[in-house]
Amino acid sequence: MKKFFQQYYTNLFLNDRLFAALAFCILLFLLKFFFAWLGDIPEIATGVLVALFFVDAFILYRIKEGLEARRFTSKRLSNGDENPIQIEVKNRYGFIVNARIIDEIPFQFQLRDKDFRLSLKSAEVKSIHYNLRPTKRGEYDFGLIRAYISSPIGLISRRYNFDGAKVLPVYPSFINLGQYELMAISHHLTEMGIKKIRKVGNSSEFDQIKNYVGGDDIRTINWKATARKGGLMVNTYTDERSQNIYCIIDKSRVMRMPFEGLSLLDYAINATVALSKVAMLKEDKAGLITISENIGAIVPADRKSAQLGNIMNVLYKEKTRYLESNLEALYSSVRAVVKQRGLLVFFTNFESLSALQRQMPYLKRLSKYHLLLVVFFENTELKTLSNEPAKDVEGIYHKTIAEKFIYEKKLMVKELSKHGILSILTPPQKLTVNVINQYLALKAQQRI
């Protein structure tokens, strides 16, 4: 009996049409006191309504599974990107039904508008498409798919609960990785904002000896081979390969600043994944180090096929901390882990020149043994404020302070350059492109 009650009554809901019909019947009874000619019309109308109610309930509940709904998603979601979600609904009734579909999406989105209404003919299948844009990494719990079905009578609705519950991990942005891979292979990275860099000189890795053709550098002529063959022969070289490219991500409080829903840490993580992908396509080794008050994760540089997955699995649950980074521990770890000279891309942020100067001794030590590239961020809100005209004295103060902080950022670039340390000062939304541009420029200049 309890099971019967749960199956039929807990999933039965009264529609607005039923309440409107009841209100009409009550009105007829009230009017009967003033108009005797109405006679038995109120009783007849009420009887017809009760009969329609039971008929409506019968046709909705006579089929045990009158509707089918399934949710289709990828195995993981991409942080900061639009992820497609699909719900497929099939009508098993022999008549047209009106459906209201509610998808219980993860609470992190704080959305209550995933409520879809559609009409389905008998045996018809329809798909619902929408996108979700997560702004935090971690695990996201999807709940049930709830469907409220009404017949053409429309007095009541029957609820179906479909078990679409699943936990999906949100990984660092990977949707655009395929585009970077395709562009890198086809040498069309300029279409995504990646600059084409002219190569300077030759690399030191010998490839082969070939016949001289017009346009070859005469300085590469191999005179011994020319004497043996009786024609001009030249040496050809290839880019140096298998260089160590380590991305170092600062997880301290300076990376908590939000921009368009994502923290600076998330932007750094997305750029790290993209740079690692491009580096491995260029046959370099990609590695990872995370740092806060202590050393976090360390992924030794490698170029095997599973390396990108290893990096993403580490970055998947990384969170910002509340203390300042310990660069002394970073220096010790780099010296212990990175035995061969390589490129260190350090994602961090400095809001004042004094903050940079506190860390400068450690940055200088790192740059002594490796090619160090420090990446930090422009404060785009301050830049917007400085460009707005001041309307009063308080506005002048705000504009002046904003310009002071912007000028300090430029001084930081000069301070790093003075000590022979490369740097990138970039808006968060252009981080990935600017970092890859710099990496390709360094490869072309044969500095790595």
Walk me through the topology.
Blueprint: H1 2-8, E1 12-14, H2 16-32, H3 41-61, E2 67-72, E3 77-78, E4 83-91, E5 97-103, E6 115-120, E7 125-132, E8 138-142, E9 145-150, E10 156-162, E11 166-171, H4 177-186, E12 205-211, H5 223-229, E13 233-238, E14 244-250, E15 258-259, E16 262-263, H6 264-281, E17 285-291, E18 295-302, H7 307-315, H8 327-337, E19 343-347, H9 353-369, E20 371-377, H10 380-387, H11 393-418, E21 422-426, H12 431-444
Parallel strand pairs: 3-11, 14-17, 14-19, 19-20, 20-21
Antiparallel strand pairs: 1-10, 2-4, 4-7, 5-6, 5-9, 8-11, 9-10, 12-13, 15-16, 17-18
What would you say this structure looks like, in words?
- The chain is of the alpha/beta class.
- The protein has 4 domains: 2-61; 67-171, Immunoglobulin-like (Sandwich); 177-197 and 240-444, Rossmann fold; 208-238, no CATH class.
- Helices cover 37% and strands 27% of the residues.
- It contains 12 helices and 21 strands.
- It has a 6-stranded mixed β-sheet with strand order 18-17-14-19-20-21, with helices on both faces. A 5-stranded antiparallel β-sheet has the order 1-10-9-5-6.
- Strand 9 (145-150) and strand 10 form a beta hairpin.
- Helix 2 runs antiparallel to helix 3, helix 6 (264-281) runs antiparallel to helix 7 and helix 6 (264-281) runs parallel beside helix 12.
- The longest helix has 26 residues, at 393-418.
- It is elongated.
- Residues 209-373 form the DUF58 domain.
- InterPro entries: DUF58.
- This is DUF58 domain-containing protein.
- The chain crosses the membrane at residues 20-38, 44-63.
